[in-house]
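Why do we care about 3D structure at all? Because function follows from shape, and shape follows, mostly, from sequence. That is the central idea of this module. The next example makes it concrete: a single protein chain, its amino acid sequence, and then its structure expressed as tokens.
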Amino acid sequence: MIIDQGYDTMEGASGDDWIAVSQSMRAYLRFSLLGGVIANQIRALGYSARVHSVMDGEVLQPPLLLLSGLGEVSRIGEVVLNPLLGPRLKSGAVTTSMPMTHDKPIDFGLQNFCENCNKCARECPSGAITAGPKLMFNGYEIWKSDSQKCTNYRITNEGGAMCGRCMKTCPWNLEGLFAEAPFRWAAMKMPWAAKGLASLDDKLGNGSLNPIKKWWWDIGMFDEGPYEPPSAPVNKRQLQPELDLKYEDQTLAVYPAPLAPHPYPYPFPMDREKGIEAYRQMISAGEYRRRKKSGHKKAASPIHEYKVPEGLPPVIRVEISHVEKMSDDVTKYEFSTLNGSPLPQVMAGAHIDVVVAPEFLRQYSLSGDPADRTKYQIAVLREDLGKGGSLLMHRIFTKGRKVFISRPINHFELEKSADKHLLMGGGIGITPLIAMGHELHREGKDFEMHYSISSRSGAGFVDDLARVPWKSHVHLHVSDEGSRADLDKILGGHQPGHHFYTCGPDRYISAVLEAGERQGWNEEAMHREYFSVPDAPEWVNHDFILRIANNGTEFLVPADKSATDILTENGIHIDVKCSDGLCGVCKCDIVSGEVEHRDFVLSKAQRKNSIILCQSRAAAKNGVIEIEI
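And the structure:
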């Protein structure tokens, strides 16, 4: 089934302004309603039926639209055009066991028309639509668009929500009036007239902005607040008929199966250089036929076969098995596997990545007993002035919800050789230290826990810590009860073999570290983990050279990019997560060079041999850093 997005709204829009995504979602939701009615009627007849909507579908829609005769593939790319609606449609499907006579694919002359018209490519704000010929991709012939360019623009578009400008400006986006019937008939029946009809469409001003048809306000919800006008200017694009877009001037990339992201909701660095090369390797259908007829050994275009990456997947699907609100702002969550099998092993101090939503990948320290593999436990502080991840989590993470989490990652390990351990937690920073307490108690180690909070009512784990078998090791410091921690006294009497671990707000960690220095603790005995980026100096960026010791390759890292940016752009895989110098996954060994360390992970001793690439740079302009990857 296809649903009309609405001609009048599209005529009044730029195509990439604030109504764009609402217009799309309105059509998708309309199908969800109608699809449910149809499926329910089919089930009433005694057959099975399943609705496949935009939010919950298990089929690929474009092939089904083609096979059912609802349209043809267009120059826009994987967008199907219908002869009556053009591209301004949204689709849905119902699969059923009910016997049916199937429709057949249709040919209404669109392939010829699109070959003679590149209006969508000319008007595309991201330059993602090809102005060139159809090429062979994954075994079929298509005008292949640059999905990365398109996606980047849709996500970063500040003048609107998403983009549908190709649909807005396509000559087939007609109102459906009787007066337009001759144009549609000529486009279908007179192939030689296609170029002239495309030119006529421009002369008539079709696809231009019609402010009379605008019925909405350009408003958005920002930071979970009220609806308000956007700060950036709203897109109000007019046609550019004078623009002569040439295929040879375009740089496009494609991502066939071997370059495709893994099938997991987890970050994946796209290798654009390889994508550009893949586009250049595609051949036309005519060349494919000529090669095949001549018996050429490369008759077929490259075979694109996806292979599941070796090793374990980066995420695990789990169920939220327990939710407990410990205070107004702090909530405890526990995760268990769907089939009751043990979770991966954990070491105290580890954290997991939680996929809150596609745009929110958040790291949370594990606070449960590492020996208990039936569940992972975290605690989340709701930050009303944060970036939105914790607010969304507090709203939608309910018991029974299925979510994705990463395997445990540990950059905050216990020093096993230590004679005594001091666990210094401030507020929500107590979470990894609780796991450490469980492990140290089980191993019979000497340790103390000092938990600093503003008040009992606003803190998490107060009741939990009163029940743990090692509660005699816990010292609670409550500011509004006059028992604020005396850090110099706690850290006094330092002896070799003593180590402390601190986590919490930036100012708390700084206070603990400063007290440790005053009391003579050495750098290697002071361990810390930050939850957010601490205040840092006003760094000045400059260009520098990054040399890869493994093969001698050198890259210029400009002032406006990081070392990880340049490595990724050049097809060199490097794990990146926070990009703030906090998590430590992009750590590499230094071979030579003077480094300006800007991370919050490495100790002074570690900085002699390691670098956090997402933030740190050469200490001097045009300096050279040599690393091993």
